[in-house]
Design goal:
It contains 14 helices and 8 strands. The protein is globular. The N terminus is likely disordered. By secondary structure, it is α+β, with helices and mostly antiparallel strands.
Length: 369
């Protein structure tokens, strides 16, 4: 069904147009939708707002399909951050979300994995490798649907420049101390903050020392709730806090020397001589992680199509990492950075895999960390 721009439609025609358009989008573009289960209702609501609704509808469609060309001129398409009625209740803050994503893009992370979780922390949806340009036009509706369903919106930046370090679970004092070297600081709940630092020429060992020296959570996985969304956890059930950006300094990349001068980097650990466990490598001080790609390359096939078994690759990676001296928590955090399956299944999967690997090592006579 096609409707000329500028014509007034009666209620029956408008309803039919909205229903058909929703069905068309879901059928043709479902694999690319960020939040498929809420899209149909959003499209119908938008279409019923007349020409503005139609313009927004085509904007959403353009965001889901890069090859789609809207019949509306650019001047008709409203900004994703433009305020509009949502019918009351909790709403998201799209401008804050855009500011946060732009801050990541300014230090080289222009693509993101998106995970949606419920109040209990269970994953309800996942979308991989979305660009900032893809996210901008759908941010408002994405946040509104998540708020309506009490879903967390969690993003994992994919760095292509500086080494990004997530300093999570900080108090207000620690967060304030890190502001001069952070390109982004978020308040995720009334007493908890997350600082993001972009470091030139850093590595995993330096990131571990920075987390330790700053008092941050050593198991932070590199994923965070998007600013402007709500922190839906059972413990906050009476008053869910909004995730907010409290500091942003785009393009800030610092050096190791600057961080060390600030006094937030723990000194290198010294090797402590001791008896070597049987059947386990003699490396006691971790200097790096195993190659995840090699674990994938040597993993057995998962089925008749010959693709490697990702679960076996994840287990092998954890087995090697723990044998090399990394703790269970550090191994799980690294697995979340390396493994697409871990990213899709979340922290519980990564931690379970690392614990299973540690238990296997223990049975063989190796250390359990």
């Amino acid at each position: 069904m096609t409707t000329p721009v500028g014509e007034t439609m009666d209620e029956r025609t408008l309803d039919a147009f909205a229903e058909q358009t929703a069905q068309d989008l879901l059928t043709r573009h479902a694999p690319d939708c960020l939040h498929r289960h809420g899209l149909r209702g959003a499209i119908i609501r938008l279409a019923r707002q007349g020409i503005e609704g139609h313009a927004r509808l085509f904007q959403m469609r353009r965001g889901l399909d890069g090859n789609f060309h809207s019949p509306f001129p650019a001047s008709v398409l409203p900004s994703a951050s433009e305020p509009r009625s949502t019918g009351g209740g909790m709403t998201g803050d799209a401008p804050q979300a855009q500011e946060m994503l732009a801050a990541f893009a300014s230090v080289g992370a222009s693509h993101f994995d998106i995970t949606f979780t419920d109040v209990a922390g269970a994953k309800v949806a996942f979308r991989r490798h979305r660009s900032l340009d893809q996210l901008r036009p759908v941010l408002f509706d994405l946040l509104q649907e998540a708020a309506a369903r009490q879903h967390n919106v969690i993003v994992r930046p994919r760095p292509a420049g500086a080494f990004l370090v997530q300093l999570d679970d900080l108090d207000a004092t620690a967060a304030a101390r890190l502001r001069p070297v952070s390109f982004l600081v978020q308040r995720t709940s009334p007493s908890h903050y997350t600082a993001w630092v972009a470091v030139a020429e850093a590595d995993a060992d330096f990131a571990r020392r920075l987390k330790k020296g700053s008092g941050a959570d050593p198991t932070a996985s590199g994923a965070t709730r998007i600013s402007g969304s709500w922190n839906f956890k059972e413990k906050y059930a009476t008053a869910f806090p909004r995730v907010e950006t409290v500091h942003a300094r785009p393009s800030l990349v610092v050096t190791r020397a600057e961080l060390e001068a600030l006094g937030v980097v723990a000194p290198p650990e010294k090797t402590v001589p001791g008896p070597l466990p049987s059947r386990v490598t003699s490396r006691r001080l971790p200097r790096g992680f195993p190659s995840y790609q090699r674990c994938v390359h040597h993993a057995p096939a998962a089925g008749g199509d010959g693709r490697p078994d990702r679960s076996r690759a994840d287990f092998a990676f954890c087995l090697l990492a723990i044998a090399w001296g990394w703790s269970i928590e550090e191994t799980a955090a690294r697995l979340l950075q390396e493994s697409s399956k871990a990213q899709e299944n979340g922290e519980a999967y990564a931690l379970r895999t690392a614990r299973n690997a540690a238990a296997a090592l223990e049975r063989r006579g190796g250390p359990r960390r």
